[in-house]
Design brief:
There is one protein chain. The protein is mostly helical. The protein contains six helices and no strands. α3 packs antiparallel against α6 and α5 packs antiparallel against α6. It is globular.
């Protein structure tokens, strides 16, 4: 049984008045799980989590555009924009040099596409933003793999 189907089943089994309490406990459990995941994550994993959140909000914004739900569209696209702005603010331009400059340019492009999608009520700019964000995310996943790869000692020649 999937997690999405599990919660409604629990709530149906609860006596009246306890369903809300169970729902709140489940919400607290999920929130605690997310907090522990963030607290135990490396800096690279945190960046990947931000990318995942931005992509999730972009997809929700895209769905809202198609459904012509302007309020949800604005809500989700703004959440994605805030994550992109946070990624931009976290760049270390002094130490990151060329990489930071390139990331800033890509984040700026993504942000511009999100603004265009929200203002023009079009999904195509979100598609561009999501494609760019997904490619960046995959790069960070590769960085994470290389950082976590065990170091192999090479014996020194005598």
């Amino acid at each position: 049984m999937s997690r999405e189907n599990y919660l409604p089943t629990i709530l149906l089994c609860e006596p009246p008045g306890r369903a809300l309490e169970t729902l709140l406990a489940y919400g607290n459990y999920a929130q605690e799980y997310r907090k522990n995941a963030v607290n135990g994550a490396s800096p690279v994993q945190l960046v990947i989590m931000l990318y995942d959140g931005a992509l999730r909000f972009m997809e929700a914004g895209k769905v809202a555009i198609v459904a012509r739900d302007i309020e949800k569209q604005n809500h989700y696209i703004q959440k994605a924009q805030k994550i992109v702005l946070e990624l931009m603010a976290s760049l270390d331009m002094a130490r990151g040099a060329e990489i930071s400059q390139n990331l800033l340019a890509l984040y700026t492009f993504i942000l511009e596409q999100l603004v265009a999608a929200n203002v023009e009520d079009r999904t195509e700019p979100i598609d561009f933003a999501m494609r760019t964000m997904s490619e960046l995310r995959e790069s960070w996943v590769e960085v994470d793999k290389s950082v976590r790869a065990p170091m192999v000692e090479v014996p020194l020649a005598a």
